[in-house]
């Protein structure tokens, strides 16, 4: 599936963009990006949330991802 | 405790004695020495009204009164509002109208509102708003507080009529 | 800190004059306790004058009113005679802080704190109020405008205590008013304050006194503003002259409460509005 | 997440959606409720903090010897008594350095030392005896000034993130963020009208009435207790344990009643200091901040400077939008501008949009989240500009908003596509609202503005224990900041089918329940509501099992309805139902205590949208604005207890109004805060406001069993622009600097008059 990145994130070719991964859950995405991109760990430390079809998931990496879902990595936010 | 002075006073109808330093506020004395933590400290400078009490019937910020000034006087705090195990009408209306969220300002509002209604049983909205302007609330936008006071005033007037 | 409750003004004056350390008078305490809390003062002695007999009373006589040094704002607000005679002074006194502050704050305290922004001071000046000062030796009476000499500074000598404020009985067809500007509706310190007292004769302003607050190191009397009113029926031209004179008399500072420009401008605006209220209170028809 | 989809469309609620009194009401109206400063411990000491009087200074030397000798002083700490986290996790190191300056004071009010003494007087005296030698350094407090080449650099370690090629020199710019989609150049080329404007917003404080307060007690064996006013005691536990090297399980944190937070009590400030003092003194230490300390050293939100450019066609279609936003995070880097970027255009479907954010450090207190953090400032700029655009093309602003409104399927400016959202519903409700047709008088004007906030979920854990008399203890871990205990009790009652009064909701301490994230991001009712539903269903499972045992039938033949177990199937039809009470009474004999539990990551919080209507009257001679009518329309997903949903709407709107009109941090040339008190930091008072009308809309959140969306924060987002738009309509003057205080409005009116 395609995983799009918010333009606040940079992997190896500038801000934003998208990458293709095999994933059934959020954890799969995180593992495969960590393996592929040395600086992804740093992004994770700064906080990453995952938007699946417009719904934002911050913590639950077991969340299954439907095959044709729109998947976006966005900054993890905090509230007041 | 340097320069402590023994103070004999009446708090919520009960005789009370406490010793406090001369420069200690009545707010601190009531909280720390009399154990009435319903008197809240929001600022300590008279700007928020959370420590509102009455001193000989007149509404004051306890943070702007010295503890030693209470000698021989009568102090009423929020703890003195409910009588014989029954909530004061204002207290009940604050709960019913959801007029509190965090509740830290509530004791001060209740004391101020009671002082208002004792003096003016039928205040209009503007009078209520100005009478409560010395009490800051950051949660409610005052809407439900004003409504609770209006409703309490109505009930209190009805009860007074019946008594007569 | 020692705490004393003298039984007379003279005794209070004696205590203050003998004290070698930092001594402070306590009446309403709405300024003193804030300074204590913020560590701005460290008193060795506090003299609470509230136990002095009659110091918390308003006395009325043929000459006018004597307002004791411990009379609170709410007591002033509830005094019918005072409200009828000097509504401007009463509204100024009642503008000081919340109901909670009103339960304690006094005219004398407002005066002695010597803040440029004190609400009651311009109103007292416009009304011709005087301060009754008791010293260890002698007693003297000073017009209110002579009491404050600068921010935090008064004419009181060591040991001197203001025992009361006197207000004359107003002449017939006199009206006074005080208006101030604050950003909120309550709880703020005046950004600008304007007090006007005037006397009418056959619908024309015969005498006037105009005083401004929060626009200079002390409250300022503006004779030019009074002159603008005298002889007029408060027509637009007179009001414009009044506003110009008030603005010209301002010598304000930029601070967290307002800018120089804003204070100058609003002093004129409020002067016009206050003049109209005073005029109507004096029986004038606009 | 295993919630049951069929409940999303649950229509017939018995308890939920009605109005019940809160369980903590009586304690709070009688003065019995215990807040942060209301606890005491045997032998407790008084803690006080010494703070920097300088905006930026090297701490050359701290001499505590005189203070230490003062009788009654039991402990003094400086950064030397705290772990040095330099080179470790920078986030934690920043938190600790903010709690206690290390080598440098970074803002007026930065803590430099702390004492614990036998009483208030001694502690105050001790502070004066601590001799700190400072060497003043150049400072900068303004966000734009801090970005200049010539500005003093506050942290040598800050190299701007998000710029290619990577800068080689340190600066005050922590990060650059960019997001959006489409081709903005092409979008502007399509536009018939383009408006470009710059805005500024001043720094504001959450202004909770209860100052930070805690009571800390650390034993020599490393066990410790902390009583504290906080939005999240589990998070405070973890953070304090990490900062001080304590074991998480050995630190018991109890959240007191909380006297307001609004984001400001999501961060630790004095708590690690109190713990460190207690550890050193070996006695409990109570530390309560003064109001001036709260303003000088805790939680404000960013001040900002924002440029917006938007273009539209004559038919009202917004073709392109660009925003460049500069947010200061105080003395430590944050991601506040990024949040501004994410929210700025979130209410609209704009084909070509771009947001650029600059996160900047200055010599001010470390910024904390404040109710929908960063969104109100961005909304002020964008919503003001939309009104200007509408005016330019001669369209009603409400129609222009509706024309461009975001819907399910719209691409959000931060990337993903929206699910079902309620912004269009709120705008339509505004358009139909009688408020919009009310007549205005001279010098009065009306403004409308929209607002967005994400809302968040997070880790949550809830226990539900049924007593032998059938009453229910609901044990929650999300701090109740605004009446959520009543909502949770209502949800439990709804699920179990019992009266509300039969449920008692409590907040557990950290030793009595699993981890819970903070009450932040409007997550309290959403998350704990979800966990409560599941815990109740878990308990129902047990209840059914016990009923089956009592009847001697199989569990499959038992259903739960209206608070009782009912036996089903042909052979059991004649068995009388067993009520929760009856089952509970026999619990000891049927298998022991009856309880339900749930641990969940409550994700999928559902976006919050609101539209506000504001009427103001402006005094053209003084520039003073009075709010004469105000209406909040917001999507709540599902309102559990409407009283407290309305309360959130009204409170948020009022904070926004305060920001719009008068609230601001005022710094002197010396970099010191000039108004650290409620006298001159002017939050709205009762007489400043009219009643705040509310309208709750319910566009269910498909990811919550009851359809709940967070409601706490969104309502602070629209007011700045709603007030600004109303002032513009009353005076013809567009205010671009918030707060729109009387001097600013009068100056703007003058400028307009001079121009014409």
Q: Which value, in Å, is the CA radius of gyration of chain B?
A: 16 Å
The fold-level CATH name of the largest domain in chain B is Ubiquitin-like (UB roll)
CATH class wording of the largest domain in chain B:
Alpha Beta
Distance between the termini of chain B: 52 Å
Structural class of chain B: alpha+beta
Question: How many individual domains of chain A?
Answer: 1
Q: Could you report the average pLDDT of chain B, rounded to the nearest whole number? A: 96
Proportion of beta-strand residues of chain A:
25-35%
CATH level 4 superfamily of chain A: Beta-grasp domain
Task: Give a short account of the largest sheet of chain B.
Answer: 5 strands, mixed
Distance between the termini of chain A: 34 Å
Low-confidence stretches of chain B: none
Largest interface (CB within 8 Å) is between: B-D, 62 and 57 residues
Number of helices of chain A: 2
Task: Explain what this protein looks like in three dimensions.
- The complex is a heterotetramer of chains A (80), B (164), C (286) and D (756).
- With 80 residues, chain A is of the alpha+beta class.
- Chain A is built from two helices and five strands.
- Helices cover 22% and strands 25% of the residues of chain A.
- A five-stranded mixed sheet of chain A has the order 2-1-5-3-4.
- Chain A starts with a strand and ends in a 5-residue tail after the last strand.
- In chain B, 35% of the residues lie in helices and 16% in strands.
- Chain B contains five helices and five strands, in the order ββαβββαααα.
- Chain B is globular and about 50 Å long.
- Chain C is of the alpha+beta class and 286 residues long.
- In chain C, α10 packs antiparallel against α11 and α11 crosses α12.
- The longest helix of chain C has 22 residues.
- Helices cover 28% and strands 24% of the residues of chain D.
- Chain D is built from 20 helices and 27 strands.
- In chain D, the strands form six sheets. A seven-stranded mixed sheet of chain D has the order 3-5-1-12-9-10-11, with helices on both faces. A six-stranded mixed sheet of chain D has the order 7-15-14-13-8-27, with helices on both faces.
- In chain D, a hairpin with a 5-residue loop joins β9 and β10.
- The termini of chain D are far apart.
- Classes of the chains: A alpha+beta (80), B alpha+beta (164), C alpha+beta (286), D alpha+beta (756).
- Chains in contact: A-D, B-C, B-D, C-D.
- At the B-D interface, α2, α3, α4 and α5 of B face α1 and α18 of D.
Briefly summarize what is shown.
By secondary structure, chain C is an alpha+beta fold.
How do the strands and helices of this protein lay out in sequence?
The complex is a heterotetramer of chains A (80), B (164), C (286) and D (756).
Chain A: E1 2-5, E2 18-20, H1 26-36, H2 40-46, E3 48-52, E4 55-57, E5 71-75
Parallel strand pairs in A: 1-5
Antiparallel strand pairs in A: 1-2, 3-4, 3-5
Chain B: E1 4-11, E2 14-21, H1 26-33, E3 52-55, E4 58-61, E5 74-76, H2 89-96, H3 106-119, H4 125-131, H5 143-163
Parallel strand pairs in B: 1-5
Antiparallel strand pairs in B: 1-2, 3-4, 3-5
Helix pairs in contact in B: 2-5
Chain C: E1 2-4, H1 9-18, E2 23-26, H2 32-37, E3 45-48, E4 58-60, E5 64-68, H3 73-78, H4 80-85, H5 87-94, H6 99-102, H7 107-112, H8 120-127, E6 130-134, E7 139-143, H9 144-147, E8 148-150, E9 153-154, E10 161-168, E11 174-181, E12 192-201, E13 204-213, E14 220-221, H10 223-229, H11 236-249, H12 260-281
Parallel strand pairs in C: 1-3, 2-3
Antiparallel strand pairs in C: 4-5, 5-10, 6-7, 6-10, 8-9, 11-12, 12-13, 13-14
Helix pairs in contact in C: 5-8, 10-11, 11-12
